[in-house]
Please model this.
Amino acid sequence: MCNVIFKMPLVLVVSLIASMSVFANPSLSIPVREHQFYASEGNSDRWQMEVQNWSGSDVIIHDIAFPDSCHFSTSANFPCAIRPGDVTTLPIDFSPPGLGDFECIAYVLSNDQNHDSIQIELYGTGLYTGPEIILITEEVFFDEARTGSSNLAYLRFYNFGDADVIIDSIELDSEHFWIGEHQDLPSKVETLETCKIQLWFMPDEAGSYADTLWIFHNDSLGKTPIPLEGEGAIINYINGSPIWFDDYTDAELINRCGGNCIWG
Model:
């Protein structure tokens, strides 16, 4: 059985069938033929795939065929009949065995004489359970900086968990390193959202500098230390030498890390 979610008025169906006899044979339509899933191990993500019948005959869906060792499945009952003019959905579930990316090609099998097998592309990402910060930049190294001048670097991280990461606070008690402008905290980082923190370094004399930035959050660790290192140097520039630059677009001036970025 299929659960009908939309049914065209009978008069309109008859009118369409009468005026378009070319569609008298069963014809299955699947508007969206690919989907991205997200779930943690032991959990699943469901997509309600819409299927349509705009022909003048019943469409019979015999099965959705998945290859072996595929982490996608359906709980739909087959055969499934879709009457002319009806629209329904078929559930497809993704259950990852662990972390990482998975993909699968499935086939919707029906009595459509022109397309008895319709290909569906399925993609899934296995996540950590709960919030999980993954550092793209585990340590921040600043390029050599001229004494008395500032140098810019970025700390990058993303959330690879199935729940929002909440950043409660960031702490950096240093005379030579500081954090750029940022939004009020606490703030959230959604699943697979990537953010970056703008950091600055200014040496007052030649030599090596080091400090630690702490991010306090709600993932299993509770807090994450980020080592910071910089090198101060006495540099005498000749006329025309570049002394500072950054690579960003106009959009990044407004929102440096895209989406719901919390520091910029």
